[in-house]
Amino acid sequence: MKTAGIIVEYNPLHNGHAWQLKKVKETLGKDTAIVVVMSGPFTQRGEPAVLDKWTRARMALACGASLVLELPVPYATASAERFAFGGVQVLAATGITKTLVFGSEHGTLPDLYDLASLLVNETPAFKASLQGYLETGLSFAAARQLAVAAQLGDSQKAALLKSSNNILGIEYLKAILRLPAKKRLEPVTFQRQGQGYLDPSPASHFASATAIRQVIASGRDNPAYLLQHLAHAMPPEALGILLEAVAQKKGLVLHEDLAVPLLALLRTRKPEDLHPYPGMGEGLAQRLHEFARRPEGQDSREARLSQLVESAMSRRLPRTRVQRALLHLLLNLTTSDLEQFDTAGGPAYIRVLGFDKNGRYLLKLMRQKASLPVITRGSDFHEHLNDINLQRQTQFDLAGTDLWSILAGSSSGTDFDRPVVIR
Q1: Model confidence over 180-230: pLDDT tens digits?
Q2: CA 223 to CA 147: how far, in whole Å?
Q3: d(CA 227, CA 220)
Q4: Which residues contact 131 (CB under 8 A, 6 or more apart)?
Q5: β-sheet bridge partners, residue 189
Q6: Core-most of 59, 105, 121, 376, by most CB within 10 Å?
Q7: pTM
């Protein structure tokens, strides 16, 4: 049986994701089993996942995945580089996954590999060029693109760094290049279908996850409204699971639901108290402290957090950085924690969320071949009580799930009360 890995959020799973799952089997063979590494309660943009991780695992299994693994919170909520590193490390650690599949706007590997090779082996000249552009006040993304163009003498190739899925694909390739040769995954990329990631229009057959979440925000308690506006944008299997969750009032969580705990926390902290958290440099701590004291949009419960984020944003402080910094503050995830995890080699265990018949067989193989502990139930952690790094990462995963559950109106402390999803 062939295996292919995909690193995902499925927030929620839509037609573009279903197309990719189908394309993997068309390209690599119908017998290919797909191993998914999926973000848990929070995502790379610093936002809550709209549905809990078990519900999203059900969606993945219903639409063609065979085995769903969880990307630990410290990597799921990080920059593109650390997010990609964590996902690739988990796939490589399974011992059963040989191929990594990802979507990109470019759709072919050679140019993306050229950029990844340059960025994984930064020369002194490149670093100096990058620093020079940063000192002019440009954002990191803009400065890096210009530095790459200067280094390669090819502005067209450097322009690939403008597109979000190209950027993430390059980070996957960087993470692969950093693996030992014998563990290196074979990359495959497909051209991304439909809207851009942040396109807000829900009309397309390949509507973006952002557009779909906006529809959910408008009708989070109304299954009929969601059916009417999402039937064209989500595969029937995934849409049915979403509607079931809404009908059973299992809880949907949106970014604005973080407003109260975040504003309350910021009102009790001094700017210097925020400095230990990732992304709080370049004046962000001071800006958040200032704007949290007198937030705009106080009369609108639906916009308090959005107003805070937009107030704190600047040319050098994009939305995702502000949102991630706020989430890390809420989870008490510090820069020193991330550095500790990276020094120890990345994710410390492989958490299984769900599997189908083929996934059951893969799980059996993985228990024999994996280079990290395989976790399917809470008692599995007790076998590794002396692994400080593993225990520390576990704390953030459990805290993240607890926070998500509280926001959803559910009980906390129940992460391992939920069984692995079996299809």
Answers
A1: 999 999 999 999 876 555 555 565 789 999 999 999 999 998 999 999 999
A2: 49
A3: 11
A4: none
A5: 102
A6: 59
A7: 0.95
